[in-house]
Design goal:
The protein is of the alpha/beta class. It has a single domain (4-220), classed as 3-Layer(aba) Sandwich (Rossmann fold). The chain has 6 helices and 7 strands; from the N terminus they run βαβαβαβαβαβαβ. Helix 6 links the parallel strand 6 and strand 7.
């Protein structure tokens, strides 16, 4: 019996790369990201481990590009992971920074999910997991755009979940707290933060639940609020 397929966006590094590597135990991987060289490195790592990986270099904020590259693919699990963050006061935030966050963190959910979920509904099975953030229910100085996009992720995911669950398609959101990735680089001790592998484990937990079970939201936070003083 052919293995099922999981498509992961932002798969070249961080949470996306860790998720692709975590899912290869049960799925053939389609890895999507802008960096062709980093995708090739991931593919080599997956194939060394005996897995199968197809790479698609793609800017998921490009609606036409996404439609051309993804429409018609038969995907069993979609992990919407790609994201960008520019944390600064609103008065310092440029229009380009604002639109890039909205396009990658939110508009791309329409482009990518719309290209793939129709096939899931037709096949009466599938899983859409979106990597959100605890910023999706909190606010903070410098987060006027980033937090807004993550609030939007929650509204999107929960509404979509209600629309397609009777068709056998499950939808969930994973909301991490601080994760040690280059999304928001910082200096000093990072050991208190979550790791990409821990978020990947949350995705694995979701997609390995029985078909009769839908865990629609997971919040994951470090056990400590911040590093040692």
């Amino acid at each position: 019996m052919p293995r099922e397929t999981a498509l992961v966006t932002g798969a070249s590094r961080g949470i996306g790369r860790a998720t692709a590597l975590r899912l290869l135990a049960a799925y053939d991987i389609i890895a999507v990201a802008r960096s062709a060289s980093e995708l090739e490195s991931l593919k080599e790592e997956i194939e060394i481990g005996g897995g199968v990986c197809r790479t698609i270099p793609l800017d998921i904020a490009d609606e036409k590009g996404v439609g051309t590259a993804l429409r018609g693919l038969e995907v069993d699990v979609l992990v919407n992971n790609a994201g960008v963050a520019t944390m600064k006061p609103f008065l310092e935030l440029t229009s380009a920074e604002w639109h890039r966050m909205v396009d990658v963190n939110f508009n791309s959910l329409y482009y990518v999910t719309h290209a793939l979920i129709g096939g899931m509904v037709e096949r009466k099975r599938g899983f859409v997991v979106t990597i959100g953030s605890l910023a999706g229910r909190n606010t903070f100085v410098g987060g006027s755009c980033y937090a807004a996009t993550k609030h939007a992720v929650n509204g999107f995911s929960e509404s979509l979940m209600l629309e397609v669950r009777d068709a056998g398609v499950r939808v969930a959101v994973v909301m991490p707290g601080s994760v040690a990735t280059d999304l928001t680089p910082s200096s000093g001790d990072q050991s208190w933060k979550l790791t990409s592998n821990q978020i990947a484990d949350s995705v694995w937990y979701l997609v390995t639940q029985p078909a009769s079970v839908l865990v629609s939201r997971i919040e994951v936070r470090p056990a400590r609020a911040k590093g040692p003083r």
